[in-house]
Structure formats: structure tokens, C-alpha cells
Amino acid sequence: MEIVRLTASHQASIIRRACRILRRGGTIVYPTDTLYGLGADPFSRRAYRKILKIKGRSARKGISVLIANQAQLKRVAATTVRDEKNLKSVWPGPVTVVLPKQKRVPLWLTGQRQTIAVRWPRQRFVSALLKSYGQPITATSANVSRQPASNSIREVLRQFGRRSDLPDLVIDAGRLPRRRPSGIIQFTSRGMRVFRPGTRVIKKRRHV
């Protein structure tokens, strides 16, 4: 496990390093606009299995993904015109939306569901990383299952330090602003279903 400190002067080189690791099926810990995330290529089963081992996570639970633009959204989700109008009201930002998955998205990633959880973050570093990588990355929180997710890299390392399987790269951005995990919602014909309120008050927003 390699640990690098994120600074403005080293951001470009760190992103290049992270992309190389992702392309070869590796895993990274990275900062988001909420908490630290555990990232991998969502189409790599090798990387997916490594995430399960690192977290001690059940394969029955799907893993969400982050995107940086509409093209990346289209790679993983099948959206309608109505969906796209509604998504503009919550993205970019700390809201994860459950959407119908594209056929190319493997069922092992979604926990055998026909839906996938997607988020378009606002944070600059992760946006730059996603654009450089050119496709979505996984967005599960960087913690051991049943342990709290964290905004502190020290806590992330404390949890993972006891595991036999470790992330390949840890990007240390220091202590992130204290926020709750992202909200999780799904648009329905009757409005919006809220699975987790998260950091943003979303239940009062109007949707079409």
C-alpha cells in the first residue's frame, strides 16, 4: 500500500498514478465531497473482488459509482428525458441516485439488481480524476463493513491496517470537512423515494 499526500503541486502526477492503478485492476482510497471513497474500475471483476476483501463486504450489496459528465452517466445508466431533468436539480453534489442500469453493467456490481446507484460529485480533485480516467469509478466508502465511514485518513488507515488485503494507493487529502454520507434517492412516477437523506435537504425539492 502506497500513501501519497495530495497537494496542488502534485495533483496532476497523483492523478496519473491513480489512473495507472485503476487501469490494471487496482484499488485506491480518494477524497470526495463527502467522505473518503474506495475506488476501482467498475467493469473489472478482479478489482470488484478486491474491494469486497478489503471491506469484508457481502457480494449481495451493490456498489455505487461516481461520474463526471453525461457521457460517463450513459455508460452505466439508462436514463429517460424525465430522469435527466430531475438529475439537474441534484447534480453535481452529494446525492446518489438509483437508476436503471445499462445492459453492459455487470450484475455482480449491482448485487444482482437491474438498477445502479450513481453520483456526480462537485469536489475538484475527484472530478479531475474521473475526467482523466475517462469513465466511472466505484464510490463505496473507504471503511471496513459495519464500521463508520470517515472524513479522516488516519481513521481509514486504522481500519484497513488490520486487513490482509489493502488498497494499492491511498490519497491523503487530510481531514475532510465533516459531512454526512451522500443522500440516496430514486425518482418514481409519484415523485421521489428517499433511502437516505444525507448531507442535503432533498425531500423538499420538486421533481417532474
Tell me the total number of β-strands. 11
Supply the number of structural domains.
1
CATH topology: DHBP synthase
How would you state the average pLDDT, rounded? 91
What characterizes the major β-sheet?
A: 6 strands, mixed
Distance between the termini: 46 Å
Helices and strands: which structural class? Answer: alpha/beta
**How would the global form be characterised?**
globular
Written description of the protein model:
The chain is α/β, with parallel strands linked by helices and 208 residues long. It has one domain: DHBP synthase (Alpha-Beta Complex), CATH 3.90.870. The chain contains 6 helices and 11 strands. A hairpin with a 2-residue loop joins strand 10 and strand 11. Helix 1 packs across helix 5. The termini are far apart.
Write a concise synopsis of the structure shown:
With 208 residues, the protein is of the alpha/beta class. The protein has helices at residues 11-23, 45-55, 70-76, 81-87, 124-133, 153-160; strands spanning 2-5, 28-31, 36-39, 65-66, 95-100, 115-119, 137-138, 140-141, 169-172, 183-188, 191-196.
Using brief descriptors, characterize the structure shown.
DHBP synthase, single chain, globular, 11 strands, 208 residues, alpha/beta, 6 helices, 6-stranded mixed sheet, 5-stranded mixed sheet
Chart the SSEs and their pairings:
Elements: E1 2-5, H1 11-23, E2 28-31, E3 36-39, H2 45-55, E4 65-66, H3 70-76, H4 81-87, E5 95-100, E6 115-119, H5 124-133, E7 137-138, E8 140-141, H6 153-160, E9 169-172, E10 183-188, E11 191-196
Parallel strand pairs: 1-9, 2-9, 4-6, 5-10
Antiparallel strand pairs: 2-3, 3-8, 4-7, 5-6, 10-11
Helix pairs in contact: 1-5
